[in-house]
Write a structure and sequence with these properties.
Layout lengths: L25 H16 L4 E3 L9 E6 L2 E12 L3 E2 L2 E3 L7 E3 L2 E2 L1 E7 L5 E7 H14 L10 H13 L1 H8 L19
Antiparallel strand pairs: 1-2, 2-3, 3-8, 4-7, 5-6, 8-9
The structure holds zinc ion.
């Protein structure tokens, strides 16, 4: 199956919530295969379908020799948090300290439509949260603390790849934290 091109930040597909998978057919199995090959080619530790332009709730991962995929995931997160740097194949070359829950339990389906539960801590938990966010149209810079986020936006504006997104007429859509004004709107 062919390796797909990875969509970069600025592409609207990355900020659009993806649709639930309702048919577990050969096309879906091809999508999982394409995602896996594209992730390995990058190389990366995870990849969500919107990152190859397919707005469906599907992602794959390869973390600590644990290769997997999940469809229509829901997440339960621990209240204890972890620190650590995180990057994204849709933001080439950029890494930021990104707070995440330490542990995650993801429930969903495999490509044959069978229910599966994936439990992860540390890096796998981080990956499950990052990829599920992609399916909700959330990118990792939305999870940064304010100062780190400002730094990220400046880095993105100065990056070589962001120029190409602007030239193609795609403007970035930035989510602002709902807490910055202490709940007051304007
Ligand atoms: Zn990503």
């Amino acid at each position: 199956m062919p390796i797909q091109s990875i969509r970069l930040f600025g592409d609207p597909v990355l900020t659009t919530p993806a649709l639930e998978v309702s048919v577990f057919d050969k096309e879906l199995r091809t999508l999982v295969s394409d995602l896996t090959e594209t992730m390995h080619d990058a190389p990366g530790a995870g990849l969500a379908a919107p990152q190859i332009g397919v707005s469906l709730r599907v992602f794959v991962w390869d973390v600590d020799d644990n290769l997997g995929h999940l469809i229509n995931p829901t997440l339960d997160l621990s209240s204890d948090m972890q620190d650590g740097e995180e990057g994204c194949l849709s933001f080439p070359g950029l890494l930021y300290e990104t707070p995440r829950a330490m542990r995650a339990v993801a429930k969903g389906f495999n490509m044959h439509g069978e229910p599966v539960t994936i439990e992860g801590s540390e890096l796998l938990a981080r990956c499950l949260q990052h990829e599920t966010d992609h399916l909700d149209g959330i990118v990792f810079i939305d999870r940064l603390v304010t100062e780190e986020r400002k730094r990220a936006m400046a880095d993105i504006r100065n990056s070589d790849w962001f120029g190409s997104a602007i030239q193609s007429g795609l403007e970035p859509r930035i989510k602002i934290s709902p807490h910055t004004t202490n709940g007051l709107g304007f």
